[in-house]
Amino acid sequence: MSYPKRTAALVSAAALAGSAVLLAAPAAHADVVDVNYHCKTPIGDKSALSPIDIKGVKSGNSYKITMSWQKGVSSSPVELGKGAMKPSATIVVGGADSGTLAVTGPANAAAIPANTPIKISDLSGSYTPEKSGKVTFTAGTLTIKALGTTTTCTPTNSPKPSLTLDVTAAGGSSSSSSSSSSGGSGGQLPQTGPEDSAVALGTLGGTVLLAGAAGALWLTRRNPATRR
Question: pTM of the full predicted structure?
């Protein structure tokens, strides 16, 4: 093969390698979703709206799923002392898989004044895929236990998923990749969405391409010296 053709072949191979890296990027997407809650409290019904963020981080064959509230919900007519309020929630699992995921978190670390929206701490749970494909995670019921009472808050606006994971069940194979909400199998999930991974992988693909071109250029320049 002539050296110009070899150079072209090396550059093409580098470009294909860069493309392969990009295609192997895990599908990841997360949205902050506004959820309207209808809460049944010991002193009557209340309503509240809070943006909900759900993130996923891969750990072995499972994912740690964390649910965050950006605004407080419900309130108490009396002050809730430190550690008096214990929250928990469910996340609706859909898409390729189905069911509910229970998430829990610590009690309030500081006292909550009376008639003040209750800030919910981050709640987390472990999800193990039973089926391969794109799995969605949507805010479900929030439960607040405090001073021997229970408040139940249910979404009323049919919120869309806050997170979508492209997962692989144990012993299974993943479905086709997508730029949808969360991370894919076999690697760490980005906690801030797919943009960080896409930039990093794009940079890596470009590095592979430049390395291939540089190698081809070195071979082309070195050849005349070899002939002498």
Answer: 0.64
Q: For residues 96 and 161, is the Cβ–Cβ distance under 8 A? A: no
List the chain pLDDT tens, one digit each, 228 residues.
Answer: 555 555 555 445 444 444 444 444 445 578 899 999 999 988 889 888 999 999 999 999 999 999 999 887 877 888 999 999 999 999 999 999 999 999 999 999 999 999 888 889 999 999 999 999 999 999 999 999 999 999 999 999 999 999 999 999 987 544 433 333 333 333 333 333 334 333 333 433 443 333 343 333 333 344 444 443
Task: Please state, in angstroms and rounded to a whole number, the distance separating the CA atoms of residues 70 and 220.
Answer: 59
25-69-76 Cα angle (round to 5): 165
What's the farthest any 2 CA atoms get from each other in the chain?
95
Short-list 222, 212, 93, CA closest to 162: 93
* Residue type at position 103: V
Radius of gyration in angstroms for the set of CA atoms belonging to the chain, rounded to a whole number: 25
Segment (H or E) for 19: helix 3-23
Q: What is the DSSP string of 80-124?
A: B-TT-EEEEEEEEEEETS-EEEEEE-PPPSS-B-TTSPBPPPPEE
Residue 114: C-alpha distances to residues 41, 58, 72, 118 (Å): 14, 39, 13, 9
